[in-house]
Design a protein that fits this description.
420 residues; single chain; alpha+beta; flat; 4-stranded antiparallel β-sheet
Length: 420
């Protein structure tokens, strides 16, 4: 009877009967009516009445409980027209407008709201798989996350637009230093190095390129040897990865420096140390892990970088934002860093650290306060780290096999050539 009644409603409604444990997994705007049912009804089917907007209107865990009240409710709803709002007109006029607004009652209109003209259900995640779909999901309208990827939460690394802006800054560092991305060949590396030399040449004329093809020697300008590429960046003790925007390329030498006076806190301000951190040990007599003279239960957790102290400054080299694939100009999409690529490249930094980048060390410098995963919430404070490239300026000698092509590239520049 109810099924026939529901089918005659205008607008139509949907009637579902689901096992209650399945409903427990849903996250609706009216969760209290579901979650407060308790364990006594776990084995009973749940009658769930949804409007075509996906909003739950009535539910019962036992058919006899429906009674006259449900019928009255259905009859009432069948006569009630769906309300319209400015939101409906807004989406009709501009379907691509995904800005979250509030209606006349001050309610935030998220996907699945009663005036959602797209018909999205009020569920944790859904997306129209139709081949003509605009890709809109129940999550994407109020986050920067594509429906094709998981919902990332946290710092700016999880926002696609922030990753794109970050990569633009890192690329600027690569251009200034004359270095390239990981995976590029010797010729592209030579092109990048030559571009930095061209930038340092006053009044460069591409009709008279100062490159001796026979010997592969550049006779034009060169960066000031005393003006070493350097940058200062902040390492926040509460953040798992802190990027520098400073490009690193294998074969080059770099110096990392930290002022000893800089301090940060651990264990809710109870421990105050510099970037050398603090050690811990297991006290057999007290049967606990001890640091700074006290038993501390959190010390049983595993450090991210086991070879170093707690709250020691640790850095690695890799890509904070990774290009997903080559696409149209200006349409690039960058994914968050891949932590697995950093694991083997981590190293502890004392007050200063000099290293020559290995073949695996390409990308940018990324640092963090050494702690256990899940314990960054009780840290406090940040420090400033300076990174400097000491193998400077770039060499002015090129492989003679490349010299002729490098010169032609400068004489006939193309807007599609990244190093032109």
């Amino acid at each position: 009877f109810l099924t026939k009644l529901v089918s005659r409603c205008d607008p139509p409604f949907s009637l579902f009967t689901l096992p209650l444990p399945s409903i427990y997994k849903l996250s609706l705007h009216q969760p209290r009516e579901i979650f407060n049912k308790g364990d006594k009804d776990k084995d009973q089917p749940l009658l769930l009445l949804l409007s075509r907007r996906g909003t739950p209107l009535f539910m019962s865990s036992s058919y006899p409980r429906i009674g006259l009240s449900a019928i009255v409710l259905l009859l009432t709803l069948s006569q009630a027209p769906l309300p319209s709002s400015a939101a409906e007109n807004r989406f009709e006029e501009d379907p691509g407008n995904l800005v979250i607004t509030t209606n006349s009652d001050g309610e935030v209109e998220l996907p699945g709201h009663r005036n959602d003209v797209r018909g999205l259900p009020n569920m944790p995640f859904s997306v129209d798989a139709n081949r003509k779909s605009d890709g809109l999901s129940s999550i994407s309208p109020w986050t920067g996350t594509s429906p094709s990827f998981p919902l990332y939460k946290g710092g700016s690394v999880y926002d696609p637009s922030s990753r794109t802006a970050h990569e633009a800054q890192t690329k600027s560092s690569r251009v200034t230093q004359g270095v390239t991305n990981k995976g590029t060949g010797a010729f592209e590396q030579a092109q990048a190095r030559l571009k930095s030399l061209v930038m340092a040449t006053a009044s460069f004329d591409n009709s008279n390129v100062p490159l001796d093809v026979a010997n592969g020697v550049w006779s034009g300008g060169s960066p000031d040897p005393s003006a070493l590429p350097t940058t200062d960046f902040t390492v926040d003790s509460t953040v798992r990865w802190n990027p520098s925007n400073f490009a690193i390329q294998s074969g080059e030498t770099y110096l990392i420096e930290v002022a000893s006076s800089q301090m940060w806190y651990d264990d809710s301000l109870d421990i105050h140390v510099n970037t050398l951190g603090y050690d811990s040990y297991f006290d057999v007599a007290q049967k606990c892990h001890v640091a700074e003279g006290k038993c501390r239960s959190y010390l049983r957790n595993t450090l991210r970088f086991k070879k170093s102290n707690w709250m020691h400054l640790v850095c690695g080299v890799g890509y904070y934002a990774t290009l997903l694939q080559e696409v149209g100009e200006g349409k690039e999409r960058y994914m968050p860093l891949k932590e697995a690529e950093f694991i083997d490249q981590l190293f502890a930094v004392d007050l200063s650290y000099t290293f020559t980048a290995s073949p695996e060390q390409n990308g940018e410098l990324v640092c963090f306060a050494n702690d256990a995963d899940g314990l960054y919430y009780d840290n406090s404070g940040s420090i400033t780290v300076r990174i400097t490239r000491t193998s400077w300026p770039p060499s002015t000698t090129f492989d003679v096999n490349y010299a002729e092509y490098l010169k032609k590239g400068l004489e006939n520049p193309s807007k599609y050539d990244e190093f032109a």
